[in-house]
Amino acid sequence: MAATLELDAVCAGAVELARAAAVRRAGVLEVGEHLGVVAEDVRVATHRFACVHPGYPGWQWEVSVVRAARAKDATVNEVTLRPGEGALLAPAWVPWSDRIGPKDLTPGVLAPTAVDDVRLEPGYTGGEFAADADPAEASQVRALVAELGLGRERVLSIVGRDDAAERWLDGPGGAENSMTQQAPANCVTCGFFVGLSGSLGRVFGVCANELSPADGSVVSVDHGCGGHSDVVEPARGVDLSVPVWDTIRIDSEIFD
Q1: Could you tell me which InterPro entries the record lists for this protein (predicted)?
Q2: What residue ranges in the chain does DSSP mark as E strands?
Q3: Where does 15-102 have alpha helices with state H?
Q4: What pLDDT is stored for residue 26 in this prediction?
Q5: pLDDT tens string 85-119
Q6: Of 197, 181, 186, whose CA–CA distance to 220 is shortest?
Q7: CA nearest to 79, candidates 15, 12, 18
Q8: For residue 86, is it left (φ>0), alpha (ψ between -120 and 50) or beta?
Q9: What CA–CA distances, in Å, run from 81 to 88, 137, 164, 210, 229?
């Protein structure tokens, strides 16, 4: 068990020395009452003072003092402003890559995709070795891919497709919403439904009805809205003819 440090009497008594050092360092951040002193090492102690500035509630000034061997007076070693218990702190720093969330991309904002992103996989011949580490060889492969028209270097992986499908099904274009529950029929039977290609096309398409809130958005085959193409305009009743006014007949009784 470690021995308890003994508080040096000279260091403990250097309250005013520590306060003066804190005042010089504080500037507009005022130094308040003395909160105590603790031993840090042999002939080393730290005095704590309250910071009374309204912008730093709960913060404390800490002044370390030290006494050299056989010296009669202590000297200031360090002055710092540190948060105390319950102090107001800034939020923890979050890396830029973690701060970007769904729908955060705006004009001019870039969101680089990691090389090992599990949502993507090599999209041209070469499998997992398609993106070769050798720049010269990779450049030749890219040139060949472009010449042969083999497509993109990376495409959605199974993980990427599953993630997208779950996100779309849980979104407003899925089936679990009031719009679908009150719709006369599902999108799969609608003339405005444009199916996607590939495996996602079995479940999703794009709405092309300008009157629908989903126009231009991905919708599932079991989604629905009131703009279904089979909803025809209701038939109106028989139109009444325009009234005919007789302005030619002469009433003979007027001349009798």
Answers
A1: DUF3027
A2: 31-41, 44-51, 59-66, 75-83, 120-122, 154-156, 193-195, 204-207, 218-220
A3: 15-26, 96-99
A4: 87
A5: 888 888 888 887 778 887 787 888 777 788 888 88
A6: 186
A7: 18
A8: left
A9: 13, 56, 48, 60, 69
If you search the block for the tokens 């804190």, which residue do you land on? Answer: 22
- What digits encode the pLDDT tens for the residues 214-235? 999 999 999 999 999 998 776 6
Distances (CA, A) of 182 to 175, 190, 192, 223, 233: 11, 15, 18, 10, 18
Q: Could you give the strand order of the β-sheet that contains 218-220, starting from the edge strand earlier in sequence?
A: 193-195, 204-207, 218-220
Domains of the chain, first to last: 9-83 (3.10.450), 114-156 (no CATH), 159-220 (no CATH)
This prediction has a pTM of: 0.52
CB contact at 8 A, 222 and 204? no
Question: Which amino acid belongs to residue 1?
Answer: M
**Residue 41 confidence class, pLDDT cut points 50, 70, 90:** very high
Q: Are residues 128 and 120 in contact, defined by beta-carbon separation less than 8 angstroms?
A: no
